Amino acid sequence: RRRVLEASQQLTEIINSETSAESPEPSRGAEPADEEESALHCLWVDKFTPRRYMELLSDDYTNRCLLKWLKLWDTVVFGKEKAVKKAKPSAEAHPPSSQPKEQQNKWKTKVQLTEEILEAELDQHKRPKCKVALLCGPPGLGKTTLAHVIAKHAGYNAVEMNASDDRSPEVFKTRIEAATQMKSVLGANEKPNCLIIDEIDGAPAASINVLLNIIHHKDGEGEAAAGTGRRRRREGGLLLRPIICICNDQ
Questions:
Q1: Are 162 and 78 in contact (CB under 8 A)?
Q2: Which domain of life does the protein's organism represent (predicted)?
Q3: Residue 150 scores a pLDDT above 80
């Protein structure tokens, strides 16, 4: 341990001597100096945070499930048709079991059940059956990092909000609707939003009910309306963007 500490101290001294030797040129102005100053004082957790999907060190099965669920929104968000999965030859060779469905599900693993849920058909509005993903785990596990990297990898603009900060249900509803119904107009490459709600376990019950009302908005209201214009107005309240919730206490 003493030798490791000595080696790390030597490396720190070498890095500090190199950075002090490379002084910025006077012609550059103050901006590069400010950038170097901010880089020196950047936290390691921010400097070495994963930027791409392949850099994630979290559980690979969790990463794939979240990405697969997010890709189910491609039909309604990006207008891409869902790829039809070809049947496996092994499934055709063996006839289906005569056991009831409950008995078959009893012996399936958690992985198989999750895969079946994610491969379920889309609803009438071409949205996945599960409208919200919930990431649970202790602090420092990488839940927020995973949500941001997956959203960026799937082509979304990640919009993060803290549920414990907005104690008012009205403000909570306004922020959710703004993130899920509006799109960013800044920059040439406009991307749809993916809402990430952090610390959802710290939100009051009234805010949770607001979120549940948005999620469980009645799909039948659009069908009951007569006329295309009226139907579009009715469907304006439907949730058409993915929401990822994060909590420590499930």
A1: no
A2: Eukaryota
A3: yes
Contact assessment for residue 74 and residue 82, using Cβ atoms and an 8 Å cutoff: yes
| DSSP character at residue 73 | T
The pLDDT, as a whole number, for residue 246 is 95
Q: Taking phi first (over 0 means left), then psi (-120 to 50 degrees means alpha), and beta for anything else, what does residue 201 get?
A: alpha
Interior/surface letters 190-201, b for 16+ CB within 10 angstroms, e for the rest: ebbbbbbbbbbb
Q: Is residue 196 within 8 Å of 159, Cβ to Cβ?
A: yes
pLDDT of residue 131: 87
| Residue 136, both tokens | 């649970």
Q: Please say whether the beta carbons of 76 and 123 come within 8 A.
A: no
Q: Between 128 and 96, where is the model more confident?
A: 128
pLDDT interval class at 79 (50, 70, 90): confident
pTM of the entire predicted model: 0.66
Token look-up 């198989």 returns 112
User: Helix (H) and strand (E) counts for the chain?
Assistant: 13, 4
Alpha helices in 94-168 (DSSP H): 101-106, 110-118, 143-153
Q: How confident is the model at residue 225 (pLDDT cuts 50, 70, 90)?
A: very low
